[in-house]
Amino acid sequence: MIPAAGALLALAAALAAACFVRFYGIAFLGRPRSPEAAAAHEVDPVSRAGLLVPAVLCLLLGVFPAPVIDLLGPVVTALGLESSLPEQGVAGWLSLQPLPERRASYDGLVLFSFLVLAGGFTAILVHRLGGAGLRRGPVWDCGYPDPAPSTQYTAASMSQPIRRVMGPLLLAAEERVTMPAPLDPRPARLEVRLVDRVLEGIYRPLVGIVLAAADRLNPIQFQTIRRYLVLVFLVLVSLLVLTAAGR
Amino acid sequence: MRLLVDLLAQGVKMFLVLLAAPLLTGWTRKVRARLLRRQGPDLLQPYRDLWRLLRKEPVLAENASWLFRTAPYLVFTTIWIAAALVPTYATGLLFGWATDLIALVAFLGFARFALALAGMDIGTAFGGIGSSRETMIASLAEPAMLLVVFTVALLAGSTQLSAIAEFLLHEPVGLRVSLALALLALLMVAIAENARIPVDNPTTHLELTMVHEAMVLEYSGRHLALIEAASALKLTAYLSLVACIFFPFGMIPSGSSAFLYPLGILAWIAKMAMLGAALAGFEKAIAKMRVFRVPEFLGGALVLSFLGTLLLFVSRVL
Amino acid sequence: MSSLAFDLAHLLAGSMVVSSFLLLYQYRITGVLNVFAVQAVILALAVAFQAWFQDAPHLYLTALIALLVKGIVIPLALHRIVRELGIHREIEPVVGVGLTMLAGLALTALAVLVVLPVTGGAGRIGREDLAFALAVILLGLLMMITRRNAVTQVVGFMSLENGLVLAATGARGMPLVVEISTAFSILIAFIVFGIFLFRIRERFDTVDVHALERFRGD
Amino acid sequence: MGETARLLVLVIPFAAAALLAAVALLLFERPEVGIYFIVDDLNTAFVLLNCFVGFTTAVFSASYIAHELEIGRLTPTFLRFYHAMYQAMLGSMSLALLSNNVGLMWAGVEVATLVTVLMVGIYRTEPAIEAAWKYFILGSVGIALAFFGTILVYLAAQDALGEGMPALAWNRLLAAAPLFDPQLLDLAFVFLLVGYGTKVGLAPLHAWLPDAHAEGPTPISAVLSGLLLNVALFALLRFKLVMAANPAALTPGPIMVTMGLLSLTFAALMLYRRRDIKRFFAYSSIEHMGITTFAFGMGGSLANFAGLLHMTMHSLTKSAIFMAVGHVAQVKGTQKIEALKGLGATHPILAWGFATGVVAIAGLPPFGVFTSEFLVVSSTFARAPWLAIPLGIGLLLAMGALVLRLVDVVFGPPTGPRTPVHASYLPMFAHLVLVLLAGIWLPEPLVRWFQAIASRLG
Fold first, then answer.
1. Residues of chain A contacting residue D250, judged by C-beta atoms under 8 Å apart
2. 3-state secondary structure of D271
3. C218 touches A221 (CB < 8 A)
4. b/e map of D289-315 (b: 16 or more CB within 10 Å)?
5. What pairs with residue A106 in β-bridges?
6. If residue A177 lies in a helix (H) or strand (E), which one and from where to where?
7. What total of structural domains would you count in chain A?
8. What is the residue-averaged pLDDT of chain D?
9. Do the beta carbons of residue C50 and residue C128 sit within 8 Å?
10. The dihedral of CA D195, D201, D203, D208: what is its sign?
11. N or C: which end of chain C has fewer CB within 10 A?
């Protein structure tokens, strides 16, 4: 069932992309949504470096995967997994070959250099042909006059299409839109109810059982001394009977 | 000398794709118009549009950030490389092994990611509409696309495009149901990805229905030119992908002499024209769907591709 | 001689068990105290006999301690406390007397069943003493279970300790150290129990274990 | 606070320190085995642990009791009574541990019980009285049964070792064990298990433990759950050794394993409904004693090693937690968990000490308790895999409850008084550092020492 797993992986990747578009878009792009956001300013270089260094490392790892994989090879075999990736450095141009040469190969370096070359070429060509002029003007927005920042898409609205598609399946999400009567000035209401199937299905019953058991055992704490002695007595007698019967 | 020829062949392929893309869009518009019994725009009209846009000065919104300005270049370059790496008229070109199908899908995914971000940058409602719907469509299209890739890769034994093409060219594959299903799924995904009629109308500016257009609403001047070129290239990439995998006739096997290349190019152009016409015909035959019926459409693609893989998987096992 | 000695030991141990049954039977608290005193006297006799039989002089000392402390001092002190606390009233055992008696019988049978096949090694008197001692212990425990009043619970505990002393003396040559510690524990038990009773009385003027348990620590 | 009281408060740590120093000497030079006293691998470990925790708790109780005097919960007369009883308890526990004569050991445990009964009742409030009374009755019944068990062992040993003192000397008992009558030994072990089991606080016999911990002064709870339970378990182990030496006798393993599992699961479930913080940790002590008994019942050198390690870790961590709880209860003036919210905001050091303790006792990785629990579970897997399931479930239940309460107490909006506590954090953090150290790296000599004991434990 490798294909099914592959499809799920792709679905995961696509959803991750959607989630990061939403995250980056809401956080960094568009017009400031609150007075504090308007007053936001850049952080000090040190924390920016904290962000930048790992990002650059990721890029390098993407472009030169072979050396890293060679490093990880022995670790994988040490873990006892019998097959680690074949030696990478062999097929020139530092290309990555997860499987024997014909089956699949991907070369980070070549593609990245292609990207940079083509990008530079287009930029120069476009600037030479079309000039580098730039003019700033008010937002067009299909002619809608000066839209307020609140018309921007919020996090909930960004996820609304995906929630409608995936919601009922994964999260038992229900959306209810209550539109007021035609003449009624009251605003429409959108209620979204997300039910986490895993939480409801597995964890809540488990916790229920544990607490029920705890409640049933709880009275033992409040017994009289006499009843505790009965417990001691019963343990003693049962053990005696056990040893007597044991013979 | 051999290396030089190969390099030349690769370079020709890249620029051929670039030049052919606007022609393809022009051709599809021409066929669509013809089907509606009207004259339709000149074949070269897309070139003139691109040229005009290229020389116009772009007008940016006040709060447009650096991302808005760099996105067009990013999108255009990634799609151009993706299109360039799909084998068009010859298999086994110099940089053929540099990428395989999964990397290609990832490249297209990256372009979509950058465009969606750019769409949100201006902070208007339409940008949000475009990006959110685009991510929804992507989240369904990508798995379907990958399943198609798996079907083909399982059959051909490799995920490298040129290897697949060679395999399908020479091996007696015979009539396989899973290939037909994969073709259908790939077509549906191509339609969704390129924002063609049933999923999204490329020419419309009706706010509530547009997906791709909503993201690029704020672009103008040379940025818009790049975006338009990119979408044209994307269409070419998808169609040449379909052609390369499912109709590999007339592709020049690697290593043959340089004179055969023009023959290969001609075959490729014919295939492109045929597919373009088919696309135009299909677009005319069907009305645009409501946005929230698109998931069913793409769900159908997903099911088809999954069935394709399953059947193939089963048949290989038995 | 041995059969006479055996009979005498048998008689004394048996009467200890009978006194435990009597304790179970009692309704009134003064009755309980008196029967406890009687049991202590029987215990002293049994220990004295063991001392004579095993010709181990130190057992006489234990017999004396048992007679004095448990036979005389504790019952008198308890009588005084009971009079002070004014709790002569009826003490209704938790479980009906009939059932308690039945349980007592079962326990004695169990004690005999458990001990006799086991102690093949020790002399016949030792085995018998042990069986009866175990019976007295179990009956003492049974008494603590079936009584609500703090005083009768402590008396139950005391009769349990009587069983212990009987067992200890039954074992030939048990070093004196153990006897002293038993006596020592009885003493401590008495002091602590005394302090508690006073303190209990001081606190909430009743000795009914129920009153004790009104507070429910959680 | 009177001059004498301040002096007394200082005397007690020095006395405990002297005792610790004396005991530490045992490590290097062991007196030869006498009729009354014996010093072997097994009890040096216990004695050392006892005296160390006794010393640190003495340092803690110095500041704790001083504070109690200030707020008037204790009068100076009771101060002297408290310190006298503390020394008596330490002495009797050491007597019990070091005695070769089984009767003397019983007497030591008996005296320790009676002393702690008095200490639990020291506040003379209504709940304290009831707790002390309950502790007295159940403790005495347990001790009486244990005494009867000792008599039975003496009877079994009589024909092999003759009469009088030698028949009670433990080392001779161990040597002559194969000759004893196996059925008598089984009977004896039943009484010993029920008797000392009550003192160890195993599930059906545990009733006295939660109330004794909750109502007594906190240093006593720390010593009670840290040391007294270990001493009782030590006595049980002594007799388990004798039983193990006699092949014909039925092995005590299954009974101990069942009682261990019973107390583990029972205590873990009871944790969820406790509202008094000290009673909460008392049940946690029952749970950990259950795990230790389970490990010793399981048998085999790995399980015994794990049991020993777990007992040491438990007493260190639990006494550290009780020290933290003591200060928390003093500062907030109550022991109800609802009223102890937001400790992190008001008393950061105390909160972090408490949090580390609870994380350690819950058996989370870096700490020693995790190492020992891990060894117990892996040894269970090795010998009886199906037993590991209830064990695992019990551990998870307990961890859930502990972490739940931890969140209640340390985080959230602070409630109740914020008076800073001038407490001695030294002993608490000393314990936690030791437990952390044991979690990360067990020193080689300690491991060899424990292994030597474990192999002999059978």
1. 243, 246
2. helix
3. yes
4. bbbbbbbbbbbbbbbbbbbbbbbbbbb
5. A96
6. strand A174-178
7. 1
8. 86
9. no
10. positive
11. N
Q: How confident is the model at residue C205 (pLDDT cuts 50, 70, 90)?
A: very low
Interface check for A96 against chain B (CB to CB < 8 A): the answer is no
Sign of CA pseudo-dihedral A93, A95, A100, A104: negative
For chain B, percent of residues with pLDDT exceeding 90: 8
Q: Which residues pair with A135 in a beta bridge?
A: B59
Domain of A78, in residue numbers? 61-130
* Residue at D285: amino acid letter: S
Burial class (CB in 10 A: 0-12, 13-18, 19+), D334: middle
Coil, strand or helix: which one is D292? helix
Residue B60 phi/psi, 5-degree rounding, is -100, 150
Q: What are phi and psi of D276, to 5 degrees?
A: -100, 125
What contacts D393, CB < 8 A, 6 or more positions away? D265
The amino acid sitting at C187 is: L
pLDDT for residue C72 = 85
Give the burial string for B12-28 (b: 16+ CB within 10 Å, else e): bbbebbbebbbbbbbbb
Contact C209 A225 (CB under 8 A): yes
Q: What is the pLDDT of residues B160-200, one digit of tens each?
A: 777 777 777 777 666 677 888 888 889 989 888 888 887 77
Tell me how far apart the alpha carbons of residues D221 and B19 are, in angstroms, rounded to a whole number. Answer: 86
| Contact check, Cβ <8 Å, C217/D144 | no
Nearest to D130 among C173, C174, C212 (CB): C212
List the one residue out of D319, D237, D229 whose CA is nearest residue D278.
Answer: D319
Place of tokens 């002495």: D91
Using an 8 Å Cβ cutoff, are B304 and B184 in contact?
yes
Question: Is residue A98 domain-resident?
Answer: yes
Q: Which residues pair with D169 in a beta bridge?
A: D101
Instruction: Report how far residue C24's alpha carbon sits from residue C32's, in angstroms, rounded to the nearest whole number.
Output: 8
**Nearest chain C Cα to A218, which residue?**
C218
CB contact under 8 A, C145 and A236: no
What is the C-alpha separation between D344 and D85, in angstroms, rounded?
A: 35
Residues of C in contact with D152 (CB under 8 A): 130
Q: Is the pLDDT of residue D363 over 50?
A: yes
The interface predicted TM-score of the complex, written ipTM, equals 0.73
Burial of residue A113 (number of CB atoms within 10 Å: 0-12, 13-18, 19+): middle
Query: pTM score, two decimals?
Result: 0.75
Q: What is the pLDDT of residues A24-49, one digit of tens each?
A: 988 888 888 888 888 888 889 999 99
